[in-house]
Amino acid sequence: MDRAAKSQFRSQNHISEWSTPIEAQLSTADGVRVHAAYRPGTGQARDTAVVVAHGFTGAVERPAVRHVAEVFGGWAGGVVTFSFRGHGRSGGRSTVGDREVLDLDAAVGWARSLGFRRIGTVGFSMGGAVVVRHAGLYGGVAAVAAVSAPARWYYRGTVPMRRLHWVVQRPLGRVVGRVGLRTRIDPQEWRDIPVPPVVAAAAVSVPFLIVHGDRDAYFPLDHPRSLHAAAPDSELWIEPGFGHAENAAEDALLERIGEWLAKAAPTG
Predict the structure, then answer these.
(1) Is the distance from CB of 81 to CB of 60 less than 8 angstroms?
(2) Per DSSP, what are the bridge partners of residue 237?
(3) Cα end-to-end span (Å), the chain
(4) What pLDDT score does 77 carry?
(5) 3-state secondary structure of 176
(6) What is the pLDDT of residue 21?
(7) Region 212-237: what's the mean pLDDT?
């Protein structure tokens, strides 16, 4: 059976499981309530859970996030998705990659409380920055994969990123974010600049995968290459034809990432 057929087979055979997730409201270290969902997987890595960190404006209920988790469920024992603060049914306001590391840490802790011995994290775009920062600064995970992640803050070199900065930094932009993008953004600027992903990457001591598309309209290829240079033991995939984050990720790529996670955090 080829990879595409395997992906279709897994999707067809997980429909009933994925229709009834276990949901929870998690509490972060700074007191924000985070909406999370857990679904059992059918992969051979039975004691491994994958925690998925979505991109900016994503959420547990978004179809792309649900699909990513469904595919990973074919490789792992279970999958946890959650909505970052200011997104979906979570409380608080988005700090665009800063305090979101606390949201991820709460989701990782929940996965561990469900009985999983090994936790792999995979993040997309903003979520990619968060999983790198979490692995480097907090640790406690068995493997980490960053997809379409920025290496540094304040990048404005592309039109989509200039638009995003307008949404985040301007009062009218935040209205657009709240009403049009269903994302509530903290109006307060960062008091202290958070440790950037490229610095945190150097402290990642577990298997580390960096995935980026050569058609990414947000972050050019110097971002993944900078992350890889900072963490020379990491693995870098430059994907031909791939755009940006979970909305552009096709099943074949997700299957490969799921397979990598299962091997990087194997059952022991």
Answers:
(1) yes
(2) 211
(3) 27
(4) 94
(5) helix
(6) 84
(7) 98
DSSP output for 40-69 = E--SSEEEEEEEEE--TT--TTSHHHHHHH
Mean pLDDT in the chain? 92
Q: Which residues lie closer than 8 Å to 19 by C-beta, 6 or more apart?
A: none
Q: Can you tell me the distance from the alpha carbon of 124 to that of 120, in angstroms, rounded to the nearest whole number?
A: 14
How confident is residue 13, by pLDDT bands cut at 50, 70 and 90? Answer: very low
Is a pLDDT exceeding 80 seen at residue 119? Answer: yes
* Residue with the two structure tokens 């109006």: 187
Phi-psi region of 30 (alpha: psi -120 to 50; beta: other; left: phi over 0): alpha
Q: Is 97 left (phi over 0), alpha (psi -120 to 50) or beta?
A: left
Give the pair of three-digit tokens for residue 267. 């059952």
Q: What is the pLDDT of residues 148-185, one digit of tens each?
A: 999 999 999 999 999 999 999 999 999 999 999 999 99
Q: Are 213 and 244 in contact (CB under 8 A)?
A: yes
Within 10 A of 266 (CB to CB), how many other CB atoms are there? 14
Handedness of CA 159, 132, 181, 92 (dihedral sign): negative
Three-class SS state of 197: helix
| Residues 172/179, Cβ–Cβ less than 8 Å | no
User: Do strands 208-213 and 235-239 pair parallel, antiparallel, or not at all (unpaired)?
Assistant: parallel
pLDDT at 44: 86
Structural domains of the chain, with CATH: 3-153+192-264 (3.40.50.1820)
Q: What is the DSSP code string of 84-120?
A: PTTBTT--S-B-TTSTHHHHHHHHHHHHHHTT-SEEE
Q: Is the pLDDT of residue 6 over 80?
A: no
